[in-house]
Amino acid sequence: MSQTVDRALSILPLLAQGPADLGQVAERLGVHKSTALRLLRTLHEHGLVYRQEDQRYRLGARLFALAQEAVENLDVREIAHPHLAALNEQIGHTVHLAVYEEGEVLYIDKVESRYPVRMYSRIGKPVAITVAAVAKLLLADLPEPERRTLAAKLDYPPYTPRSTPNAAAFLAELATVREQGWATDLGGHEESINCVGAPIRGADGRVVAAMSVSAPNVVVTAEELLALLPLVRRTADAISRDYSGTTPPKEATA
Fold first, then answer.
1. What is the pLDDT of residue 22?
2. Which long-range contacts (CB under 8 A, 24 or more apart) does 110-117 make?
3. Spatial separation of the C-alpha atoms in residues 167 and 149, rounded to whole Å
4. Which of 31, 52, 60, 226 has the smallest set of CB atoms within 10 Å of its CB?
C-alpha cells in the first residue's frame, strides 16, 4: 500500500512540469503502463489530475483548490508561537511576531521578557513603520514599484536622532534589508531600545511575517543583541519550514 501511495504521489511533481502521456508517466515511475493507468485513474477520480483531449494528463483543478484552501487556513501565529516561546525561554528577551495588512504593520504575537524592564508594545497595535525591524523586513519584500509608492506616502517622525529621516533613506535601507535577509532597529524608535529581526517565508519564498527580538540597552548592549542574530535567523527559518511544509536538508553524517 505504501508503495502504491508513493508512486501515485510521484506523479504529481512530474505533471507539475507539464502535461505527460501514459507512456511518459509509466517510464518515469518505472512501472508497466497498466499500473500507471490505474494510478492516474485514481488521481483523476479525486480531481487531482485531468486527462486532456490529446490523452495527456495534467494537474487537476481540485489540487489547486486544496492548495489554496490550505494556504488560507494557515495560521502563522499558531505555527510560530512555540518557536517564539522557546527562543524567549532561551534568551529571556521580548520576542515579537508581525504581519503587513492594509498598509500597516501589526504585532500579532508577543512573548514578554523575563527582565523587569518591559516593552510597551501590544498585540494588534501598529508598529512604527519607518523604523521597526519587522516593518523593514515586511516592506523590503514588496515589489519595487509598491515600495516606492509606499515610501513616498509615509511620514518620517523624528522619534530619535537615529530615526529614518526621509523616503530616500528608507528605500535605501529596505534595499539593504532585502539583500542581507535581516533587519535592525538600533535606537530608531526609542533610544534605549534595540531590536533585531528576521523574515518568515511561505512556500513561494515570499515574506508572510517577521519576527524580532527586542531589549533595552540597560539589559544588553546593541552589540550583545546583534550577537543573537544567528539564533533569531535559525528560529525564523524553523518557523518558515513549519509554515511552508518544507523539510530541512539532512545534515551530513561523519
1. 92
2. 111/81, 111/84, 111/85, 111/87, 112/88, 113/88, 113/215, 113/219, 114/88, 115/215, 115/219, 117/216, 117/218, 117/219
3. 10
4. 52
Q: Which are the contacts of 50, defined by CB distance < 8 A and separation ≥ 6?
A: 44, 57, 58, 59, 60, 61
CA angle (122 as vertex; 119, 125 as ends), nearest 5: 130
pLDDT, one tens digit per residue, over 80-120 is 999 999 999 999 999 999 999 878 899 989 999 988 766 66
DSSP 8-state symbol, 203: T
CA pair distance 193, 239, nearest whole angstrom: 25
How far apart CA 210 and CA 182 sit, in angstroms, is 10
Work out the number of other CB atoms within 10 angstroms of the CB of residue 200.
29
Strand partners, 190: none
How far apart (Å, rounded) are the C-alpha atoms in residues 229 and 232? 5
Range scoring the smallest mean pLDDT among 45-49, 89-93, 157-161: 45-49
How far apart are alpha carbons 166 and 63 in whole angstroms?
Answer: 46
Residues 6+ apart with CB under 8 A from 9: none
Grid coordinates of 189? 524608535
